[in-house]
Amino acid sequence: MDKTMADPTILTFDLGTQSMRAMVVNRQGKILYYAQYKYPKPYVSIQPGYADVDPMMYYRTMRILMDQLYKQDTHCLQDCAGVTLACIRDTIILLDENKKPIRDAILWLDHRLADDTSRIPGWVLKASSVVHMRKILEQQYCASHINWLIENEKDSYARCTKVVFLPSFLHYLLTGNLVDTPSNMIGHLPFDYKRQTWQKDRDIKRYMCDIPREKLVDLVTESVLGTITEQASLETGIPEGLPLVATGSDKGCETLGVSAIHPYQASLSFGTTATIQFTLNKYVTPEKFLPSYPSVLDGYYNPEIEIFRGYWLISWF
């Protein structure tokens, strides 16, 4: 942070499933300015269980929130030292050679399933049977939205040069850098949760979602992912040149935000999905074959148990 600032602040965006929030927070954690926008239509279901959303909707919402903040105080960001994002997880976007979305994003709560497991090599099925992992491998293969796209939208996948999660795409729009952090890699991509990097080519678990390495983003551990470009500033209202500071998934940020950083502490999250998370410095699977997610803190993990429908049930009811 700039030491010349009397009280440096951070601009942060919390991108949820049903709404987005923007806050200006000082170093003591006090929220100085706050704005929220509920999406008129969080997603579109062309069939029961489907959930598609225009990924640019999230980017446009940033402009709406910035306008709300500036209406509260035109100088609300005069001491701002950086901007951060906390995004929903496992929301897949296909990008073409120009890094433009090929189709709508598939939201994390989408239930479409692939049904052709013939792409899984025979040796993988045999090896997974030996370790009693075949059932979960086939289940996760079918649950991977990329496998559904390969089966049902071959042209879209063929045109795709990058498969990314939502925060990766927003990092690119804001800074021009298509990069992300291990702490955002929570979902159906070939990610090694223990090593916190992409899975090796011959890793059995990779065949749950076997995306070529060249279609995946570069993972970085730097604290700054880039700076807000002139174009992004014009489009969103976020000041040009502000550093985009690396964070992680929404649940991981919540766990860190409530200071649940010791093994005897837990973070309860009551969002669209309800979860309980811990922070550990060693890799521990919360259930058999269920990975422990990477923490926002480098080298740490967030074991998690979730109820897929949390507070979403209240708004639905």
Characterize the structure shown.
With 317 residues, the chain is α+β, with helices and mostly antiparallel strands. The chain folds into 2 domains: 9-246, Nucleotidyltransferase, domain 5 (2-Layer Sandwich); 249-317, no CATH class. Helices cover 25% and strands 24% of the residues. The protein has 9 helices and 20 strands. The strands form 8 sheets. A 5-stranded mixed β-sheet has the order 3-2-1-5-15. Strands 16-17-20 form a 3-stranded antiparallel β-sheet, covered by helices on one side. Strand 16 and strand 17 (274-277) form a beta hairpin. The protein is globular and about 65 Å long.
> Any idea of the CATH class of the largest domain?
Alpha Beta
Strand content: 15-25%
Low-confidence stretches: none
| Strand/helix succession | EEEEHEEEHHHHEHEEEEEHEEHEEEEEH
Structural class: alpha+beta
The CATH architecture assignment of the largest domain turns out to be 2-Layer Sandwich
Number of domains: 2
Q: Largest sheet at a glance?
A: 5 strands, mixed
- Terminal Cα span: 45 Å
Number of strands: 20
Q: Return the average pLDDT rounded to an integer.
A: 93
Shape: globular
Assign the CATH topology of the largest domain.
Nucleotidyltransferase, domain 5
Query: How much helicity do the residues have?
Result: 25-40%
Radius of gyration: 20 Å
- For the biggest β-sheet, the strand order reads 3-2-1-5-15
Count of discrete alpha- or pi-helical segments spanning 4 or more residues: 9
CATH homologous superfamily heading of the largest domain: ATPase, nucleotide binding domain
